[in-house]
Amino acid sequence: MKLTMTITLLFFLTIFNFPFNHGVATTFARTSKPHVLVPSSIGGLLQQRGIRAAYWPSFTGYPASSIDTSYFSHIYYAFVLPSPTTYALDITSDDVEKLLGFANATSAWNPRAKTILSIGGGGGGALPGIFSQMASQVYSRANFINSTIKVARDYNFDGVDLDWEFPSNESDMSNLGLLFKEWREALEYEANITKQARLLLTSAVYYASNVSFDGGPRSYPIQAISQYVDWISPMCFDYHGSWENFTGLHSALYDPYTTLSTDFGIGSWIQAGVPPEKIVMGLPLYGPTWSLENPENNTVGAPTTGTGPGSGLLVYSQVVDFNKENNATIVFDNTRISYYSYAGDSWVSFDDIGSIKHKVRYARTRALGGYFFWALGQDLDWAISKTASKAWLT
Length: 394
Ligand SMILES: *[C@@H]1O[C@H](CO)[C@@H](O)[C@H](O)[C@H]1NC(C)=O
Ligand SMILES: *[C@@H]1O[C@H](CO)[C@@H](O)[C@H](O)[C@H]1NC(C)=O
Ligand SMILES: *[C@@H]1O[C@H](CO)[C@@H](O)[C@H](O)[C@H]1NC(C)=O
Ligand SMILES: *[C@@H]1O[C@H](CO)[C@@H](O)[C@H](O)[C@H]1NC(C)=O
Ligand SMILES: *[C@@H]1O[C@H](CO)[C@@H](O)[C@H](O)[C@H]1NC(C)=O
Ligand SMILES: *[C@@H]1O[C@H](CO)[C@@H](O)[C@H](O)[C@H]1NC(C)=O
Ligand SMILES: *[C@@H]1O[C@H](CO)[C@@H](O)[C@H](O)[C@H]1NC(C)=O
Ligand SMILES: *[C@@H]1O[C@H](CO)[C@@H](O)[C@H](O)[C@H]1NC(C)=O
Description:
This protein is an alpha/beta fold. The chain has helices at 2-15, 22-31, 39-49, 93-107, 127-136, 138-154, 170-194, 222-228, 262-272, 316-325, 353-365, 383-393, and strands at residues 51-57, 74-80, 114-121, 159-164, 200-205, 210-211, 218-219, 231-234, 280-284, 286-292, 304-307, 313-315, 329-333, 338-343, 346-350, 370-374.
């Protein structure tokens, strides 16, 4: 398999002299007709079976060959990073090994879920600034775009995904719009000249269409998203965490008192003008934990003193173990549509079968494109993945 990949790589270097440069990019910009880019018919076709996606973290050791693809239509490879100097993807030898292993695993999948190469990821650090720089100039955007296509084709992906957490001001947001436009045009062009199916273009985004933390208020480029991106994936989680000194549900569908809810976030995207079928709703397979200040005070909003089990985070399978081992009290919050549990001074926010089913039905009712999970390897015997897939398809 390694040999085949090397040959594919050489093949690309030899024949795929992709003439994407500044001059060509501006030509695309002048001659392309946005109205023939069929933004919503693709979404319309996908809608029938839904985008039932999940991210595969390449860094946890969970094998891609273990993914049961009967529950998923799309699997994201997370993540690769751009170089801080050239803005081309920086594919290290470690990345090469993981990408080859992933490509190999996918060839044995049945059914063969589509795969999308995700670029970026959370965690802050230098990455948001590198994306900001990359997106700010036409040549660095071109270099980045060109390299994403090359890497995606070399490793047999069906699409590319941007996970920029997060654009920090209005100029980042408008540059992001230019990036989406030029990226989509390059993908169309490459598909034309190589006579292959066009690579998908998707992006993980903040749960709501406006962002106001860490800087001034700024709005995502709705026009460019609607026109050039196949779908966006709002990250409908992390509303609360152990950085706060009170308990909270980190992925509440509704919230009676604040705008920190999935319903608010999804509503903001629709209200801003993104076609619902281009919205793929985030679902968590993990939850934050706290230590209660007073074990007797264990409701949502109760005072806390710090992180709980798992240093502040448990994945779903660990939540199930925690609840069992500690005979925890499990509460379904039927206003917010999410679960919490507590035992002694430990408090955990999580989603389970009931809330996942409710959220997927919500996504259906709002005619969204689908849902995605963060992340593979965190479920318990596919219980949540199976629930979601069934709730979508029936
Ligand atoms: C794009 O990539 C090809 C190789 O795949 C390379 O020959 C070309 O110079 C690149 N163009 C830019 C603008 O980076
Ligand atoms: C490729 O996948 C097969 C199973 O599909 C596995 O046995 C083999 O070890 C894999 N090779 C690599 C290099 O990952
Ligand atoms: C926007 O944010 C980026 C990244 O932090 C920064 O480099 C840039 O100077 C900012 N632009 C404006 C106009 O504030
Ligand atoms: C791709 O090909 C179609 C039909 O051949 C053409 O109409 C379209 O303009 C091409 N798009 C690009 C970006 O080259
Ligand atoms: C929680 O933190 C806020 C500010 O971060 C502070 O004003 C408040 O007093 C704290 N509450 C408790 C119970 O420690
Ligand atoms: C987002 O910001 C825009 C521009 O300021 C504003 O028109 C819109 O109402 C805001 N949307 C929400 C949901 O707050
Ligand atoms: C629980 O904590 C909240 C918030 O500090 C407080 O308002 C409430 O009175 C406490 N309830 C009990 C039973 O201690
Ligand atoms: C588990 O907790 C329930 C109350 O939530 C209690 O009735 C039961 O005795 C507990 N069982 C054990 C084994 O601690």
